[in-house]
Specification:
Number of domains: 3
CATH topology of the largest domain: fumarase
CATH class of the largest domain: Alpha Beta
Strand content: 15-25%
Largest sheet: 5 strands, mixed, barrel
Radius of gyration: 23 Å
Number of helices: 14
Helix content: 25-40%
Strand order of the largest sheet: 14-15-16-17-19
Amino acid sequence: MGKITESDIRESIADALQYISYYHPKDFVEGMVKAYEVETSDSAKNAIGQILINSKMCAIGHRPLCQDTGSVNVFIKVGMRADLEITKELEEIINEGVSAAYQDPSNTLRYSIVSDPAGKRVNTKNNTPAVIHYSVDNSDEIEITVAAKGGGSENKAKFAVLNPSDSIYDWVMENVEKMGAGWCPPGILGIGIGGNPEKAMLMAKEALMGKCDIHELKARGASNSLEELRLKLYEDINKLGIGAQGLGGITTVLDVKILDYPCHAASLPVAMIPNCAATRHIHFKLKGDGPAVFEKPDLDTWPDIELPVDNIKRINIEDLSKENLSQLKVGDTVLLSGKILTARDAAHKKIVEYKNAGKPLPNGVDIANKLIYYVGPVDPVGDEAVGPAGPTTSTRMDKFTKDMMEMNILGMIGKAERRQPTIDLIKEYGSIYFIATGGAAYLIAQSIKKAQRVAFEELGMEAIYEFEIKDMPVTVAVDSEGNSIHSIGPAKFRSI
């Protein structure tokens, strides 16, 4: 074989990241299709349908599956007999590939990485550095797995050192219930057992890179204790009734993947990391014959889905007020039209700082009687008003909700559940909380007809935008009476 060059590595990393930004893995799509076909919850089926429609649109349009285009994870195994023609550190070459991918003008990806994480948290502007894991073998090639991991699912990672006599099953079940819907189910759970703390966490992440094959395992039956645990967890997690987006349903996980490693007799390290509805990873090898080549998937993998239009309410936001929000009930499917403002963590923090200082927001921005959408969009390309613009996890904004209510916001749009104190505030102030489907960012963006940054432009994707929307699909998650779909929905489908 020939030499493996810097450009081969750099180009392969860049192409892989572009590829996974708009193509779901085939096995994941097939798992989602199965989940869609068997789902009996109307709300959950609608959410899975939106995710699949979004997935096919992204495959055709080559735009990101999710506005959170992820932190980059690279697993690289370097053969000791590989003929490498490189003059730079491998880490530098990989990060050059990451930078090229995220700054590709044909498909811009969102920069989410900040430096000085305990201090100023300044965006690096090219989504580097990647988190890179190295290993070696005795081959003459380089083996690489590239993944883009969204923050919502990463934030739900769990780790514990159990006593050797403790139940791994009980620990996983308890923590899955606590995770809620912020990780954007349905997705995959990766579990690492044994080794030591860092090994367990690494195995949990690696497990997520495996094929979604639980149905094959069910058909042939378990042949060892780990496979038995996989099947039991898969069945029983789905019996919890959490469902797609936490709306209540029969599919919460598409698969449970487990890796293990020998550990000290006195301990039992266990880690769990979920992968969301924007599962993105790819595996390839470099053998000295040029950069990796990624084949386009068959579009027939995706079904043609038409979402039901019965019982959908079309609402003009200008017609909404605190006095008439009571017309909207928990679980209602709504198509919103009008103007909304966006704000995420950083913008909320600044808004509260301005409020406490008695200062008006910049540029005359007024959040009173406005719906606030929790989103950090991808930059637009071509004639787009905005790039993919799906919701971020709402619980991160709970700490700011009282201040926002005191500033008389109309309501909020995000994803996943709210904590009880926030639900109480929604009821107290006669407000409302809608959810949009996490994992349907490109689909949602089609409803955004105009977008402009109106405050805190220095925050980049976390700036405040004004969106003009037409028929944006949302669901009432907490109504003005304090009823929550994330309590009511799963309770209907819980069977364990």
